[in-house]
Structures are given as structure tokens and as C-alpha cells.
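Ticket #332: bound-state structure for magnesium ion.
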Amino acid sequence: MSVRVVARIRPLLKQELDKDVIVTSESTEGEGTQPTIVRIPNPKNEAESFSFQFSSVYEQETTQQQVFESEVAPTVKHLFNGYDTTIFSYGPTGTGKTHTMRGGKSLADRGVIPRLLSNIYRRCRKIEKDTSGATHVSVTMSYYEIYCDRVFDLFEPPEKRTASGLPIRDNHGKTVVVGLREVPCTTLKEFETLYDQANINRSTSATKLNAHSSRSHAILTVKITQTTEDSVLVSQASAIDLAGSEDNRRTDNNKERMVESSAINKSLFVLAQCVDAISKKQSRIPYRESKMTRILSLGQNNGMTLMVLNLAPVRSYHMDTLSSLNVANRTK
Ligand code: ADP
Ligand code: MG
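RESOLUTION: The complex was predicted; output attached.
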């Protein structure tokens, strides 16, 4: 089981061009090598700075393709060998989590998820061709969000939601979401249509709840089943656009928001603990302590976990950046 925790610093937005950049990266191997260190000033004494180490640090100008090729493409081979993959984007709201996972409309802007699916479908076709059809590969997916510890199916229209969300149950040692749709999806085109509609469902439901999609976790799970005459191999890739890691209590303290932020804080905390335990190869991984890690059975299947810590380089994010670095650093 392997874990990588990497940081990605987003470029300045148009409205930030005159802002103070305080987050920088460094490489330990000398000029021209991939950086592994993030440096940020101590807010209490700017003459000092803190440094944090990662498996890799992606600087402002890194493209979507570079992130995919370096971090995700190498895992697809393992996925088809039967190992599960889990990819998280973690960080304060506005730092590029959705950009990293979903990305923009243009080909160059596509994020990890559409690129992963494109790669998966290409490999499915290749396997079927190389085995002259003796191996059949099927792809199904589910996509849900967890908001205030309640699970909602993003493949269903928001009107069909119940207030309490979908129940979860333990079934032969595996946690399942009862009633969650698992949709067969055979082409990239089909996936794109399904995924776009689901993302519209995500933002519509957030608007209806008077919430914001940055306060829910969105979890896409792609299940791959390879069937031959005498064997079945199943593995899955999960890609998670997490809720913003900032402490919502500081800005907004009405009752609804308190419930939201304590649910978010708890699940992000448990997630960080799980990633930490996996990386230290501890035998006890506290995945049962939050709904998300429980449904994902995080760390229970051999496989690999990637956490991308998204960061904004400017001063307005100083405290949120520092606290997310502290969390991610515990998990490196
Ligand atoms: P989050 O999901 O963490 O709240 P977003 O992905 O919505 O953040 O990003 C916030 C803004 O920054 C968006 O306008 C997005 O297009 C832009 N952005 C984020 N990362 C990048 C990047 N690497 N390159 C260009 N623009 C980016
Ligand atoms: Mg987002």
C-alpha cells in the first residue's frame, strides 16, 4: 500500500496580480530538479519561515497534463492489475481542488478525472483487442456527495433527495451505500454526459440548501471488472473533490454553518489520520470513524492513495494555507 502527498500551488488569478506572493517552493537536489519543499512565513514573525516537505511540489506554471502524467498515469497499470486507487484534492476553498480534479472545458484544461477516464477506456479497448475479445472489461460508476454527514446520489436529480440522504450499512465486512446508483458507462462520451449532468445536480442542490458546493465532498468511484472464461478481476479508482479545509466558523457562525463545519472538520481530520496511518504502515487505520473513509474502506485494500494539497500563493490565504500545510504534513 503506498501513499503520496504532493502540493500544487496555483497561479495568481487576474484579480490577484498585484498581491503579495508568500508561498514558495524549493528543491533539495539543486537547480532544475522537481521541488519537494513548500516555504511560508511565520505569521507571528515574518522574519522566520516554516518549511514543509512533500513527495513532490508542483509550481504555479504546472499544467494539467503534467500533474496527470506524473501522478496519476503511473497508477492506471496497477488499477488494471487489480489494485484500488484513491485520489483526493485537499485545501482551502479557491485553491484549485475542482480545477485539479475536474478542470475546465478545453482539452488542455481537463483535470485528473476526465484524463483518467480517457486513459481507462483506451486501456479497456487495448486489452479486448490484445486478447481478441477473450477478456471483457466493463466500467461502472457511482458519484455521490457527502454533505453534513449525509450521502446524496449525484446521478439522481436533486428533487429526488430525501432530507436524511442514503443510509449506509455493513454488508459482509464492506460498507455499502444503500440505493446508490452504479451506472454502466462504456465510452468516454457517455461518461462526459453523465458527469456534466451530475455536476449540475451538485451545484443546483447546493443552491437549494442555501449552501455551497465547497462544503460537500464529491466522490466519484469508477469500478473496473475484467472477465475471462475462468476469472473475474475487480478494482476501483475513487477521485474525491473534498470540501474546503478552511475553518468556516471564523467567518460565519450561524447554526447551520456550525453543523456544516463541524462535520467537515471531523471528516477531514479522520481522513488526514487515515492517510497518516497508511503512510506509517500502521496496522490500525481509523477509517471507521467517518462516513467517507468508511464507505471508501480507506487503507483496507491494497492499492495506492494520492493526496494533492492545493495551495494559493497569496497572503490573503495565509492562515488557511498554514493550517492545511500542517494537516497535510502530518500525513506525508
Ligand atoms: P476550489 O475547488 O479549491 O475551491 P477552484 O478549482 O474552483 O478551487 O479554483 C479557484 C479558481 O482558481 C478558479 O477560477 C480556477 O479556474 C482557478 N485555478 C485554480 N487552479 C488553477 C490552475 N492551476 N491554473 C489556472 N487556474 C486555476
Ligand atoms: Mg471546488
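RESOLUTION NOTES: Residues 61-309 form a domain with the Kinesin fold (CATH 3.40.850.10).
TICKET STATUS: resolved
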